[in-house]
């Protein structure tokens, strides 16, 4: 594996392993660009809201990540849930703007073939950046202060080319 | 200060439990290599291991050394990178 590829993979692992900082912020720092959310689908079943979305780079339009998110309305601050219902903002940006106290726990992460990608219900999940490269992914839960249960579960698949583009590779 | 055997236990536990890698070797000691002929970690897993150790123990493994980690024996890796750091 060439050294620049090794360095990129290392950077990806550092992002995947980081639970203290927000992934959206890290991606914006790395790409020196802002990320725009595109919400494809959002549906509410019982107390759960399921959101399918992606984040694209504002300047290039490159898809940085595809995300599946499950939100429990009884385990997130009501003001945040009201904003999520509006379907305008990405969750990362909302969390940054509200700045609610929360803890994050990474459940799993790594690299996966696009054909093996699943959603949060373990159903096959189609990725827009499927060209044979292994896809970095990360699944984590967010628990808000004063709530007993995790309120948000996030499964993020990252476009492996986003870092290549930044490094000129 | 931790012994090499202590570090081998810490690192193999991390590989098994955090990285979900099955280690089938009957015996692991300071001469066991991290890569194909030893633990069997591939290049991606070796990078993941380095990053996990960097984050957990505030050590640093140079990027240029990462492609060679597979040929490191446990003893050499621990002496060169884990030093006297406590977990």
Structure description:
The complex is a heterodimer of chains A (169) and B (87). Chain A is α+β, with helices and mostly antiparallel strands and 169 residues long. Chain A has one domain (3-167): Chorismate lyase. Chain A has 5 helices and 6 strands; from the N terminus they run ααβββααβββα. The longest helix of chain A is centred in the N-terminal third of the chain and has 15 residues, at 3-17. In chain A, 30% of the residues are buried. The mean pLDDT of chain A is 85. By secondary structure, chain B is mainly alpha-helical. Chain B has a single domain, classed as Orthogonal Bundle (Non-ribosomal Peptide Synthetase Peptidyl Carrier Protein, Chain A), CATH 1.10.1200.
**The CATH architecture of chain B:** Orthogonal Bundle
Helix content of chain B: 40-55%
* Protein chains sharing the most extensive interface: A-B, 12 and 12 residues
As for the CATH topology of chain B, it is Non-ribosomal Peptide Synthetase Peptidyl Carrier Protein, Chain A
Indicate the radius of gyration of chain A in whole angstroms. Answer: 16 Å
Straight-line N-to-C gap of chain B: 10 Å
Overall, the morphology of chain B is: globular
- The secondary structure category of chain B is mainly alpha
Itemize the secondary structure elements and their pairings:
The complex is a heterodimer of chains A (169) and B (87).
Chain A lengths: L2 H15 L5 H9 L3 E11 L2 E10 L5 E10 L5 H9 L4 H8 L3 E11 L22 E10 L7 E7 L2 H7 L2
Antiparallel strand pairs in A: 1-2, 2-3, 3-6, 4-5, 5-6
Chain B lengths: L3 H15 L24 H15 L16 H9 L5
Question: Quick recap of the structure?
Answer:
Chain A is an alpha+beta fold. Chain A contains 5 helices and 6 strands; from the N terminus they run ααβββααβββα. Chain A has a single domain, classed as Chorismate lyase-like (Chorismate lyase), CATH 3.40.1410.
């Amino acid at each position: 594996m060439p050294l620049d590829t090794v360095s990129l993979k290392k950077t990806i692992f550092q992002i995947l392993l980081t639970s203290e900082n927000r992934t959206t912020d890290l991606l914006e720092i790395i790409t020196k660009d802002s990320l725009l959310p595109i919400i494809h689908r959002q549906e509410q079943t019982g107390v759960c809201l399921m959101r399918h979305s992606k984040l694209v780079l504002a300047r290039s339009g490159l898809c940085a990540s595809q995300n599946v998110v499950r939100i429990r309305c009884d385990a997130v601050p009501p003001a945040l849930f009201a904003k999520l219902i509006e379907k305008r903002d990405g969750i990362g940006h909302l969390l940054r703007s509200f700045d609610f106290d929360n803890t994050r726990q990474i459940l799993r992460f790594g690299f996966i073939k696009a054909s093996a990608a699943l959603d949060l219900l373990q159903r096959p999940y189609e990725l827009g950046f499927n060209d044979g490269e292994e896809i970095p992914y990360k699944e984590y839960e967010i628990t808000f202060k004063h709530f007993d249960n995790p309120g948000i579960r996030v499964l993020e698949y990252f476009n492996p080319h986003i870092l290549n583009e930044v490094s000129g590779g | 200060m931790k012994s090499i055997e202590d570090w081998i236990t810490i690192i193999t536990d991390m590989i098994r439990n955090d990285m979900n890698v099955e280690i089938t070797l009957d015996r692991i000691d300071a001469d066991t290599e991290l890569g194909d002929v030893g633990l069997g970690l591939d290049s991606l897993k070796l990078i993941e291991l380095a990053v996990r150790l960097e984050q957990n123990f505030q050590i640093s493994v140079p990027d240029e050394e990462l492609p060679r980690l597979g040929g490191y024996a446990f003893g050499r890796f621990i002496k060169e990178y884990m030093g006297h750091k406590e977990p």
